[in-house]
Design goal:
The complex is a heterodimer of chains A (about 350) and B (about 425). Chain A is mainly alpha-helical and about 350 residues long. Chain A contains 14 helices and 4 strands. The radius of gyration of chain A is 21 Å and the shape is globular. Classes of the chains: A mainly alpha (about 350), B mainly alpha (about 425).
Chain lengths: ~350, ~425
Amino acid sequence: MELSTLQIIWFALWGLLWAVYFMLDGFDFGAGMLMPVLAQSDTDRRVIINTLGPVWDGNEVWLITAGGATFAAFPTTYAYMFSWLYLPLLAILFCLIFRGVAFEFRGKKDSDGWRKAWDTAIILCSFLASLLFGVAFGNIFRGIPINMVNGEFVYEGNFFLLLNPYALLTGIMFVLIFAFHGALWVSCKTTDALQKRAEATYKKLFIPMLAVIVLFLVYTWFETDLFANYMAFPAWFAVVVLCAASFIAAGFMKGAKAFLLSCLGIVLTVFTGIIGLFPNLIPSNIAPEFSLTAFNTSSSQYTLTIMTVVVLIFVPIVIAYQIWTYYLFRHPVRPEDVADPDVETY
Amino acid sequence: MDAIALSRLQFALTAGFHWLFVPLTLGLIILVAFMETMYVRTGDRVYLNMTKFWGKLFLINFAVGVVTGITLEFQFGMNWAEYSKYVGDIFGAPLAIEATVAFFLESTFLGIWIFGWKKISKKAHLFAVWMVALGSNLSALWILIANAWMQHPVGYILKDGRAEMVDFGALIFSSHAWAKFFHAVSSGWVVASFFVMGVSAYHLLKKNETEFFKKSLKFGAVFGLAASLFLALIGDTSGVQVAKTQPSKFAAMESLWETQSGAPEYILAIPDSKNERNTIEILPIPKLASFLAFHDWNAEVKGLKEFAPDMRPPVGLTFFSFRAMVGLGTYFILVTALALFFIRKGNIQDKSWFLKVLLFSIPLPYIAGELGWIVAEVGRQPWIVYGLMKTADAVSKNLSSAHVVLSLVGFVAFYGLLGIIDFMLLIKYSKKGPEKA
């Protein structure tokens, strides 16, 4: 295949990996941060954590894969993105590490203080990771100050410039979407009072979420160049419309259907951004020609070909066994399940 | 310290910390899988209890191993951007493949294994644990393919100011990669064997659940002896490869200053880098260094003086780490062989001195593993990719020392806390013993 074709394929795959990652880890971030709202007892908290238990680790591997794919397919972007965004990435890293061990450690000591400390870690880290991912993507949509000095890309921003209003709004949007998504997950995977509270919560989050999405789209129009690709090829607007429609439909529905619509909504949200970015992976807001793109930062034709073959063979296999996992654990977790000493739980 | 030194320190600490958890993961899951296999075959519930007890310890350890791995993937870009740009075309691929092919397998089936006891058939559950074992060990393979490329770069050309992959086959079938892989995973199997033997010895000393822990100890000893022998054998292969392709590292491992044929091996020496000699040389074994290097007693081995002083690795650290690692490796063979001998005689539960030896030997394979990585990574200096790129040229250009100080302090505090908690939980659940199912 032509190098440019491969670069376009990998740009789309890059978007897809992030989309799947947010679709999956999104609901466990959401369920995590909503624990104080949804849970009224330790049993409730354990039920929520145990709905995530069999799947959260597999969900997080999509992030490792997205990171690894960026490294393999766009090494120059990987190198600059990770070194320029040193501090925010460090913060995300710490959140993910703390949250990960919290699931495992929480039940390992019979003490209220101990459990409370790990619950706090789960709640705060889920919230902060969502916010920070949103801020990071907000900055990517908006572009960052990349200059070109002696033929090399140079970053002229700093940590505080990343906390601009547009990026913060994107962060809030991520938090609200993930919270909505997480509440829907909990409503599908629990019973009785907890399920009722989860249903009430996603209904309550529905309007604020839509409002922030609309505000985000309007702000994006004025603040970024994302809509240029759409104006050039208006059929792309179908993706934005479909994305909004998925979320709206999710808000009016219940159970698995609503959750799957919200999954679709998240994937399309990421693609709304990705379509607008193309071919930029990280746009420069100093001059468009200083942007890091799929064309000027990619691996060689040979490497991209190898990686395409690997992905075509193995990703479908991964998706198949992950779907099997979700099918296996499709039944709601009931309070008596987490009390059963014969069943492994968190 | 500048950003380079700080970044090196940070990478060494975070990688070294990660390697405190990974080896037990690699080995213990195989032992647990064997235990569950015995349960499914015989239906004997003692094997089920063993699977659950050792499985719980596996999980406590696994959690920290898995989350600290993310740090390493991020750090290549965060601190080593110039490296990532220069070699990403060839180095990124094995990392991405690791996630796609191995890590998904390990993580997904682990969820099924933990939570699936009552959801799937016994055989499907057994399948899940073997998939976790396969996934974690495959994961090590891809990471070591990447690391082996840093030791001995193959399958690339230099083009447009970077290293580009031209031969994927050369990358994945590099003899270095397979030797490193088997050496590293078998070191993990030894860690797990000593862990299982040590914890079992503790309970046997307390006369607690004797049958259960005698059975466990036997699993550890059989697997441990096989793994220790294999580890030494493949270590020898690794040594030959190092001598062939990284002569400066081999010279530092032997603290050999002058190039010579039939080079002796000193059991102990104290290198003096400034004056390019050894202050003390004790117990020379004639011609052994030549034999270890090329399997030829009279072969010529290059001395450190062949390399400019700034092209030599830190000699003392490489030399002593190598000595201690080999010494410990020998000890592992002896101890596991002795354990197996007492088990066959049927009186291991009465040999309290030996049980104490087993208990206090738990940390030793961990130490040997860390020393092995010091030999591999410190011994490769000043190169980050041997002969191709220097570590000093690999660090991110925009990186301020202040940022690295901040992250380094963060990692030390945070990892310190995680390490202590995990250590305490491992002790607590090890002491608690099995639950009856």
